Amino acid sequence: GARAFLEMADILLEAIGIASKEIFDYNRENFKFDQEQRLSRDLSRVEMQIKRFDLFRQDIEDLVKLTVDKMDMYHLIGALFLGFTTTIYCEGRIEKPPNWFNGLYLLSVASSFVYLLLAVWLSMHASISSHSFGVRVRTRYVRLPIPSLSQISSLTAKLSDFENQRWREMMRIPFATGRQEWRRSNGGGGDGGQPSGGALLPPEAAPGQPGASSGGQDDNLGHGEDGFASENVMMQAAKALPGKHVDLFRRFQAKWQNYDAYARVSMAIGVHQMLNALNYYMVGTNLIKWKCPSTAYACTVVFQAGTQAIGILDVSGYSKLKVTFLQTMGSIPIIVILVILSLENKGRGPKSPINRDRELERLAPVAYIIQGIWIWSLLILAKPSNDEAALPRRYRAVLFLDVFGCANFDPTGAENTAVVPASGTSAAAVRREAQASLAAAAENALSIAQQALRRWEAVPVEMLTGAQHDRIVRERKEYAYWRSTFNWHMGKHRKDYDTAARDKQDLRPWSELSMLERQDDEFAEALLGPLEQHGEQGLGMCHYALESNEQVWEQVIDQRVLTLKELSHLVHRAQVAVKAMTRKGSSGKAEEEDEEEEGDDDDESDESDEGESDSGTSSSGSKTNGSARASQKQRKKPMDTLPWKIIRRMTKTLAVCWLALGCELFVDQTWFEGKLGGAGEASPGENAEGGSGTAGEGERRLGGRALPVEGPAAVWDAFEDVQVEWPHGSFFQPMAMSCPGRPAGAAGLLLGNRYRLYSGASAPEPVSLSALPTSDFPPRTVALCPPSPGGSACLLGAPVPEGVAVWPHGSSPRGRAAVVLSLQGRPWHAMTGAAVPCAEAAGLMARPQESAWCLLLAGWDGERLLVAAAPLPAGPAAPPPKARLAPRLDVPLLHASSQGAQGAAGGRPVCAVRVVGGDSATAQAAGSPACSALAPQAAAHVVALHLDAGRGRLWVLLAGSWLEAWDLYEFQNAGHWRLRWPGGGSFRAAGLCAASRDALLLVGADDLVGPRLLRAKGLAVPPPGPEYSDVGLDGPETLPPRSGGSSTGDRLL
């Protein structure tokens, strides 16, 4: 029996041994198989992780390239448009336009240039910022998760690791026990591991984290590169990182998104203004320079249709009718200008200047005012939205700015669909859902602020300064107030909300948190600081690592730092979120209040907080609310609104310019008309091209008469200086002079400069000048006196943009007695005149006059010397009634080029010189040697004029020191001289008048001695010849000399 028992025991033990061996081998093969599967899976995970983050980096590169490429296109187009507007400024000059048209044209070009320049500048900022932040994201945040050597070691599997497993895993009986759980050893040689079901997971101290070692091996790969820096370790599941690179990019995109959007807005407005400027140019060229109204209308239709098309393409969110109305409003100024210029072109010849109508031009201010209102209305389109992005969503191009749907655009229409309650959902349910969303946002903001406060409160007190400690206490009080507000609101609306339990769980200090809770902290591994501490090199700045309880003295580059400034910002965000929740309305009001509290901090740069010092914080006795507001001002807005503010201020500035110019033009044309004297500025168009360029009806030419000139002009150099006590010494700049009378045998003097009018007498010397009491005389004011002595009976007159202003001596040019006589044709630059008997000037009147006295005026309009007359019903001392002057005589000038002195009718030559010799008189036309001796090649320019009322003699001083005398009563030339000034020819004459029959007074300025008054004596005036000839279209015609009482009709052409 015993032997049989032993045999059975031996067989049983052998069976057990064989079974144990089989079980051991089976489990060993299982371990080997599992390790091979685990190793293959881990290697695939590493490979897929690298590929995934490579896709992240490509996403960032594509997103940045989207902005950079678009801004490069803006640069190119903006540069081309800027060059075009500069060309318009330099080359696109309209020949002598009216002031009101010139302002519209040039201000449109200026608006276009400024907006296009802003577009280029904003796009340049957006391009540089996007490229810079894109590089920053790819180099600092989104890195390829390259494993380190220790991480690669942790992926290896050894069969000897089977020896470290528990015996129940080694001898597990198949199908009889539960699931196998293998222990995974630390690849760095650490102890033990962490069990898992069916797979080997990384140990609690995961490889790749700070502190992971390679077991003494040479770690040539360093710590590797983790995706999103150190936020997540390489071996964690990829599902922990969905879309984080997109969120990170969109946070950085806020730095340049507004610059991108408003660059497009600026370009849209600039192109519109450029089209308007081109339209003004075409209208001015075809209706002012030429007479081509049909071309002007066609160009206007084309350009305004272009602005309409661009407006419809650019603007979104408005109906086409509204967009068309807005663009049509911008076209009204062009239409107003077309109406004015078209009516002024009626009756105009193909090559003659435009006929100015001042009554019609009163509509011009309307164009300015409407243009100002229209450009102000553009602020409605460019206004940013009320959401977080703050983009001008009225512009279509902005809708495609964010490819992730920030602009609420979805090709499927899902994101653009309005949120409406379902059929069974009430409006109250919708409000409750919105309130729940606000409550969740407030709870999340409070949780983040609590985590930041808890970390700072865990810093040892001895490491904090007094100001830092007081600031933490104030932030805790502020946080406690808003948390209690949140709890009260939640307890009121939710019965299941346990305030005490939540506070007990959430407000635990750092020391009571578990390891897992510390790892899940929002600011895990973040440093705290900067802190002032005494180190080996004395007092310095350091940071505190809460997890390792160490001071970090090295420069922090890649690791996150939680500063007190950020703490204040987080507490303030919690405050705003709680306010939004407790307010009955939406959270938009809270955001607006938040922006108002911040103020205009758009220019705040993206500074780091490493150099922050809290020594300047308020004292511990300051109030909590005041410190909270001070900390609120330090934080930055999520979106930079500086581009919008620049566009808004620039648009308002341009609108004010348009409105101010329109109001100024309106006031100038209505309220002050006839009262401004010479204070207004003459328009370029009025000076040369504004009026009638030909001799109109009733205007006669004296140039067709033969000139009884025998021989060449005489040279006169006999001058003597008259001693004068000049006001302001050598700084006095005379502009005009006249001799109002000759009391006591001495010639009276009336001298004017740009600012005042002075009176005196030519004798005795030195002449003393006294300023007249009224200081608002226009420049070039002259006396209009009768032939009899006595300056007090004279009138005063001056050329003004509206015509000729006349007022009594001793009164103001802006008083009620002043009269403005409008002119037919261009405004005069210089003038003279006198009160003469109407019988002497009968040939210069359009019809016989009953008045005994007439006002005889002569003026230079830049091209012609014209003579006109007006009756004086009230005598020579009272201004004439308001009327329109029509010049009756065009005085030719001998010393002018043939081109400038051609007659209006048939190109009649003006230089017809009588040559003495023989029985018959012959005439030589312009271009003959006799004429060439008299006329220099330079065109005539009148320097000064004087009319001698006693003899009807008009003295004309020309540039080049030429002096001519014309007898207006006899219709003939009375002489011409070449003046040679004393002192080397540096004298520049500015005025002249006849002091006596054979002496002239000339006033001017000398480069060396300043103002001078010269007296020229002994000017020989030849008597009229026995006969004179007329050179007409049919050749010379001999006419008898003028006899008394004969009609002057045969002496005027």
Automatic annotation (TrEMBL):
Residues 181-226, 580-639, 678-704, 1024-1053 are annotated as: Disordered. This is Uncharacterized protein. Residues 591-613 have a biased composition (Acidic residues). The chain crosses the membrane at residues 73-92, 104-124, 325-343, 363-382. Residues 197-217, 614-628 have a biased composition (Low complexity). Residues 1044-1053 have a biased composition (Polar residues). Keywords: Membrane, Transmembrane, Transmembrane helix.
